[in-house]
Design goal:
about 180 residues, alpha/beta, Rossmann fold, five-stranded parallel β-sheet, globular, binds flavin mononucleotide, Flavodoxin_dom, Flavoprotein-like_sf, Protoporphyrinogen oxidase
Length: about 180
């Protein structure tokens, strides 16, 4: 099976997540077409038979080029088994209301685009303080203070649960082939 693994990533964590999913797909004997939806060229030549899309939340929403991509490809996405990986920080918050908010981030995407993925996985992202510019570091630290995440700006903090992502990918592969 050929599976499109499409992603958009501003700071690199969603790309890392997409790469991990693609590697797992290839390991299982299927073919993954890893595709950056912002910079990638046409993927149609490969005729993917399923799709997993990954996108991060920044300032309360998914990046606009990602929403544009889903809108553009909506009919195709509806015609194949598909899944969505939502990457956020709120999903690992100390506070239940923020975790709840994160659970609903995909609702707005679905309402805006009309795409309803068969499976949704919520992955906690990362805080790459050392790679941010001054303003972004300040914003990220404020966000971290608000939700109980680490605020040591001399380090990179990665929160993604890799075994849970692997389990989700396995489940998707099984469902897509059924
Ligand atoms: C400036 C900035 C704003 C963010 N805003 C939010 C937010 O509103 N809600 C949230 O849950 N996570 C937020 N995050 C956390 C990101 O979703 C997280 O860092 C993720 O790993 C980013 O994915 P990317 O590396 O693929 O861009 C923000 C991160 C940064 C740096």
């Amino acid at each position: 099976m050929i599976i499109l693994v499409g992603y958009v990533s501003i700071e690199g964590q969603s790309r890392k997540i997409a790469e991990t999913i693609a590697a797992q797909i290839e390991k299982s004997g299927d073919r993954a077409v890893l595709f950056n939806v912002v910079t990638g060229a046409e993927f149609g030549v490969d005729h993917p038979q399923a799709a997993i899309l990954c996108a991060p939340i920044h300032a309360g929403r998914y990046p606009v080029p990602f929403i544009d991509f889903v809108q553009r490809e909506r009919d195709w996405l509806k015609s194949v088994p598909s899944a969505f990986v939502s990457v956020s920080l709120f999903i690992r918050s100390e506070y239940a209301d923020e975790r709840e908010e994160a659970m609903h981030f995909p609702d707005a995407l679905m309402a805006e685009t009309g795409w309803v993925p068969g499976m949704v996985h919520h992955a906690a992202g990362a805080l790459r303080y050392t790679e941010y510019d001054f303003f972004k570091r300040w914003m990220a630290k404020r966000l971290a203070e608000r939700e109980g995440a680490p605020t040591d700006t001399k380090q990179v903090h990665e929160f993604t649960d890799w075994p849970a992502l692997q389990h989700f990918t396995d489940e998707f592969l099984t469902a897509a082939k059924a």
